[in-house]
Amino acid sequence: MFVKINVASFLVALFVVLVEGSNVIESIVEDHEHSIGTQWAVLVAGSSDWYNYRHQADICHAYQLLKKGGLKDEHIIVFMYDDIAYNSENPRPGVIINKPHGPDVYKGVPKDYTGKNCNAQNFYGVILGNKSALTGGSGKVVNSGPNDYIFIYYADHGGPGVIEMPVEPPIYGKDLNEVLKKKHGSRTYKKMVFYLEACDSGSMFEGLLDKGLNIYVTTASKSDENSFATYCAPKDYEDTCLGDLFSVSWLENSDLQDRRVETLKKQFRRIRKRVLNNGTEGSHMMEYGDLHIHNDALSKYMGSNSPQHTSSSTNNYPSNSRHVNQRDVQLLYLISKFQNAPEGSIRKSEAYRKLSEVISEREHVDKSVKHIGQILFGVKNGPEVLNIVRPAGQPLVDDWDCLKSFVKIFESYCGSLTSYGKKHVRGFANMCNAGIQRDQMDAAAKQTCSS
Ligand SMILES: *[C@@H]1O[C@H](CO)[C@@H](O)[C@H](O)[C@H]1NC(C)=O
Ligand SMILES: *[C@@H]1O[C@H](CO)[C@@H](O)[C@H](O)[C@H]1NC(C)=O
Which of 5, 95, 117, 373 is most buried per CB count within 10 Å? Predict the structure, then answer.
């Protein structure tokens, strides 16, 4: 009798394998495990200021999506400076939207890490579930177990190997990947998905993210490519942008599609074209880490939804919406302020002064970095060396401590590198890669900026 039952169940199992394929069994097993695990999310807007409206709008939109998807507030941890909703420039006080005529996405968003608590140290502590590492904020951390699913989404400015936070220091690629490795070592998740939007965002993982950590990453752009703001200068918001291109593309796709059916891979393919935007004012999305994870349904990370019924969903966005290179949105803001001020007014001259100040600040950073490069590598070779892009699969720099110290040395003589100037981090990385020593860098920066 026993034998018969075992044979029968063996045959049933074999039948399932043969007929339906092993994917089905895998997904049944996974669904079961999923049902006992918890879904966590960490959402990070790395900027502050009105002209950066879009990053906090993206993050708030993501919160609404996850919340509607069934994730619990105690499992969604939000980092945002929180200076947008009640900003004096907001035409709709208390409201944040993520597309023209879009719904309010601000209502109900948990204020876990706001203001100066929206910082890198808290971000690491939250991911690692280490409450004693926190410096303030709500104290919510990813207190996850081995069967849990974690979704991390970050939107902001970045540069090669670096992404910003509203307060110093920024997050370097090496440190972020160390934190992820440590999280994996603590065996406190089953799988993790990380979506990252920033300029040069691929460089945060290129040659850095180990395989086998059960982490799948999508970035908005390659290692050496800008990412783009979108929904720029719509009516009533002429001086800012309401979203970022990769961010609103995945968010709107996740709102629209049935997330129990749509996989990460399908989402990647579906939005890739929109993000590339014909190769003009668009970027190449990238994937890193354990790519097999991209066969998972979105619902594992974002919860499920009642999909909106439309036949073709991909073209359902304003195709004439304005895109602006993330690094230039501040100029859009300042130019708009200048244009809209009445002729001859104090506001006009004030706006002009501010615009000139920012433009000369940019020129100062560009010229200073170039000059340092020329001192170190020669007038002709300098610019060339600073612009070297390493082949795919290689990290930006071998010695990250060298890179960090070179940025510090630069700032000590030449002033803040600024968000705009973060694009020059590759130049500093290449100085380190070429074996330049700290005292050489110090002398070159001093010669360039202290006269
Ligand atoms: C948690 O953070 C504290 C403070 O940074 C640190 O000393 C401690 O080692 C961390 N604990 C773990 C388990 O990583
Ligand atoms: C994209 O490129 C195609 C072919 O080059 C062109 O026909 C189309 O108008 C472009 N679309 C946009 C939005 O620029």
Answer: 373
